Each structure stands twice: as C-alpha cells, then as structure tokens.
Amino acid sequence: MGEEIKNSIDTDDVTETLDKCVKYYTLEEITAHNTSKDTWLIIHDKVYDVASFLEEHPGGEEVLLEQAGADATESFEDVGHSIDAREILVQYYIGELSLDDRGKNNSKDVCVTSSGESSSWSTWLIPAIAALAVGLVYRYYMLEHKSS
Ligand code: HEM
User: Per the UniProt record, which residue ranges are transmembrane (predicted)?
Assistant: First the structure.
C-alpha cells in the first residue's frame, strides 16, 4: 500500500489517491450500528462513529442513541449546533454514505436553492419600486410648488 501511495505522488495524482481512501458505507451497513457500544450517525451524507462521544455529548447520550444507525442531519441542524460542535464532529468521521443511498433528502436542497434565488430577486425589486415612488412624489411636489 505504501508503494501505491508513493507511485501516486510520483505521478502527481494525489487527489485520486485521496478519493480512493474514502470509505463508502451503504444505508444497510450503517443501520446495523445502532447500539450504545456501536453507534454510527449520518450527518450531511457523512458517516460518524460516535460511540466514544456518547458520554461527552453536552446534549446527553439519549438523543444520539435515538438517531443511532440513521440520518441525524435534521435533528443535528434543528438544535443549531455551534461551530465548536461541528469541529468535534470531524474527529468521529469514518466515511461517506454510499452514493446510491443518497438523494432521499436532496429535494430539500433544490428547494432551498430556488427559494434563495427568488428572495435575492425580490431584495432589489422592492427598493427599486420604493425609490421610483419617492421620485414621483418629489417631482409632483416640485411641480405643485413651482405653479403656486
Ligand atoms: C456527533 C454529532 C454531534 C456532536 C459532535 C454534537 C455536539 C454538541 C455540542 C458541542 C453541544 C454543546 C452546544 C454547542 O456547542 O452547540 C451539543 C448540544 C446539544 N446537542 Fe449535540 N452533537 C451531536 C449530535 C446531536 C444530535 C444528533 C442531536 C439531536 C438528536 C443533538 C442534540 C443536542 C442537544 C439537545 C444539545 C443541547 C443544546 C442546549 O442545551 O442548548 N446533538 N451537541
């Protein structure tokens, strides 16, 4: 294996080597790790082995056990975890959810993107209409003022 990495570096193919090192787990495999001694979680399509973190979790081990072997993305985000919490997460990373098992929640991301676009569109349109209205009122006022 050492030789394989050496060859890859020689050929400047480091990215490909890193990709090969990523382990993909199927939903079926992950679901089996659902006990207090063997606890895996999926958060944002990444797999974490949090068995050794259960007792340290400031929110208690029960909430983690409830999600054991399943996708905890929604509950993790609902709590509004801090940046510190997200940094802790990195220590327990063991791999990625298999590509075939992704996508069940992805429709949500699409919705967020499209609603994001429409909100940016309305952020400039409303001030533009307001500015136009103010301009018209000002003009009307000036004309009135001149004629009297
Ligand atoms: C391995 C993944 C997780 C890590 C590393 C983590 C880490 C943390 C940390 C560091 C805190 C302290 C507050 C903060 O810094 O945000 C916290 C609080 C908390 N977490 Fe987690 N957490 C994880 C997963 C979860 C999940 C899946 C749930 C929900 C089911 C959850 C529920 C809570 C709750 C309820 C609190 C207490 C919030 C409060 O008292 O204000 N956590 N977590």
Answer: 121-141
